[in-house]
Amino acid sequence: MNMRMPQLSFEPADELAALCKAGGDPLRLNVLRALSNDSFGVLELAQIFAIGQSGMSHHLKVLAQAGLVATRREGNAIFYRRALAQGERLGGRLHAALLDEVDALGLPVEVHLRIGQVHGQRAAASQDFFARMAANFQAQQDLIAGLPQYRDSVLALLDALGFSAQASVLEVGPGDGGFLPELARRFARVTALDNSPAMLELASLRCSNEGLGNVELKLADALHDEYPAADCVVLNMVLHHFAAPAEALKHLAVRVKAGGSLLITELCSHNQSWARQACGDLWLGFEQDDLARWALAAGLTPGESLYVGLRNGFQIQVRHFAKPDEHTGPKTSSRAGSNGALTHR
Q: How many domains does the chain have?
């Protein structure tokens, strides 16, 4: 008599097996290490690890099936980043432990060099855009979100922080200098930093026309050159031009004095890929939780957040991150009215 044995179901064990399989390859572990504070497209990862695109796609598929990487569409491109471990889910503790061990790995020197090359290619594309488009800067900005659309929101958050009359401020990427007069009225010392001579020339003309005697303009790279720390560091619609935003926040946090603040105005995540060509954007906005997570990793404390919806469908986030003072604790701000809802994150 032929009896069929019932098939047993091992779904939970299958999930754990997929996680173990994904972590059982040295290349995939190094990919996870490279994605610790960055996101890359499949072509970039193929370049970084010197393998073919199809081979890298296979490894990314295995990592994605195990829930170790997440994807985000940037226009027509798909970028990969590490997925956060969910402790309450099956395999969550194993996932977290794997990432902890991965973060202790040292990437091969040649991989570090290729990551630097990818970042350099991104940065060169951004610099080339601003060199070509300086004369039409305002028109390009207005395609998505010009300064008038978010100026009042940033000022409301800035004024609520109550800086002293002797405080200093640093604006990274001042563009044509449109925000510098507001900063010059609120701070004793203003430093404006840009790596584009063409854009810095526009900012210099603005300062000259408006008699801004307390503003110093510097041609410098915000991530690699030396310059003084400030009580407040401001980035208005700049972070999406950085090759590696999470790493940029770590560098910029060092330039914030203890007890000071980092203010970031940025687009929320969107899928309007035309912004890459029209506005030189490397990233199509950012998820709110990503900015908070990157800031925490940089030693900053998330403060107030303000969101402004625009008529063209984009949404702007104005974020405050405080650098804790070991004596007085983190600076916090009070609520302030503005063009959008000011909420705690």
A: 2
